[in-house]
Design a protein that fits this description.
This protein is α/β, with parallel strands linked by helices. It contains ten helices and 19 strands. The protein has two domains: 146 residues, Carbamoyl-phosphate synthase small subunit, N-terminal domain (Glucose Oxidase, domain 1), CATH 3.50.30; 208 residues, Class I glutamine amidotransferase (GATase) domain (Rossmann fold, 3-Layer(aba) Sandwich), CATH 3.40.50. Strand 17 and strand 18 form a beta hairpin. The protein is globular.
């Protein structure tokens, strides 16, 4: 059955239907990752977006549910060049098409994803419709789409406590803006008992938990929309409690300190983005998924300094705060899927908690 991708600039791509029946309008973004399509599908940071895989063959090792980064698929739609119908892996449970049907996610295959990606790079991220007819939606309808309150949709509904693997050494209060499971695992295996908190948790509740450290997770959408979380971090940031932020958490922490954020032309998404540590000059390969940046020129040198920058375009990839145990990064150091170059950042967070205890 034919299916179409219609962009808000009028470009139409004809392909074949995959996944669930139905149509969807969403923001169209691309990821350059060559693998980890299941982690991409289930990453809450993609809420409200349809993802284009630039790698041409997707689904060759099937669906392996223990590798999911959340309990369900979070993308709105899925766009690939070729979808493998006969996956091969000893852990495989089902194929990609069946999984998308189960999760009620429409997709399209058989289109020129190289041409589509080139369009998004040249024109910038834009809205699009995955539909059964190129005339199903007007261009005005497609342009009018906005991602509304995505953090509210992906954050935990109730406070949860995740035990440490082995002996509990630290207590970490984690704001869930759209957490990936493997971030929790990285802390748990280092002896942290994680209090997973809804995004609107108050500073008073964090005080009651009396954590050794505070963690701000990744998540979807425009960071400036998270007004309550920003105000909460304004209260928390000067407590002296160690703080680490990732992705959206990095941006919220920056906004709480008075810095600015802006939307990137087409974002950074994939498992192969180089970032430079400005202290050592060393370059690391990182996993990323974001459409916004902290504006480098807005970082007040009396408050903080840039920690990492993106080698490709020079945008900010991390901030280190002065005279307080607090840092954040734009990329995903837990890196599943992706390289594990920057896992040491979790060890730095652990050391900050140790130092505070011993001070």
């Amino acid at each position: 059955m034919k299916r179409y991708l219609v962009l808000e600039n009028g470009n139409i791509y004809e392909g074949e239907a995959m996944g669930a029946e139905g149509s969807v309008i969403s923001e169209i973004v691309f990821t350059t990752a060559m693998t980890a399509y299941l982690e991409t599908l289930t990453d809450p940071s993609y809420k409200g977006q349809a993802v284009v895989q630039t790698f041409p063959l997707i689904g060759n090792y099937g669906i392996i549910t223990p590798d999911m980064e959340g309990p369900k698929v979070n993308v709105s739609g899925y766009i690939v060049r070729e979808a493998c119908e006969l996956p091969s892996n000893f852990r495989c449970e089902t194929d990609l098409d069946t999984f998308l049907k189960q999760q009620n996610i429409p997709g399209i295959k058989g289109i020129d994803t190289r041409a589509l990606t080139k369009c998004l790079r040249e024109s910038g991220t834009m809205n699009g419709a995955i539909c059964s007819s190129p005339d199903e939606f007007s261009i005005d309808e497609i342009k009018a789409y906005r991602i509304k309150d995505p953090v509210e949709e992906v954050t935990t509904e109730t406070e949860q406590v995740i035990k440490a693997e082995g002996e509990t050494v630290y207590r970490v209060a984690m704001f869930d803006f759209g957490i990936k499971r493997n971030i929790i695992r990285e802390l748990s295996k280092r002896g942290a008992e994680v209090y997973l908190l809804p995004a609107d948790t108050t500073a008073q509740r964090v005080k009651e938990i009396d954590p050794d450290g505070i963690f701000l997770s990744n998540g979807p959408g425009d960071p400036e929309d998270n007004v309550k979380a920003i105000e909460t971090m304004k209260e928390i940031k000067d407590w002296g409690t160690p703080v680490m932020g990732i992705c959206l958490g990095h941006q919220i922490l920056a906004l709480a300190h008075g810095f600015k954020t802006s939307k990137l032309k087409y974002g950074h998404r994939g498992a192969n983005h180089p970032v430079r540590d400005l202290d050592t000059g060393r370059v690391y390969i990182s996993s990323q998924n974001h459409g916004y940046q902290v504006v480098s020129s807005s970082v007040d040198p009396k408050i903080a300094k840039e920690y990492f920058v993106n080698v490709n375009d020079g945008t900010n990839e991390g901030i280190e705060y002065m005279n307080k145990p607090c840092f954040s990064v734009q990329f995903h150091p837990e890196a599943c899927g992706g390289p594990k170059d920057t896992e040491f950042l979790f060890d730095r967070f652990i050391k900050m908690m140790d130092d505070r205890r011993n001070s």
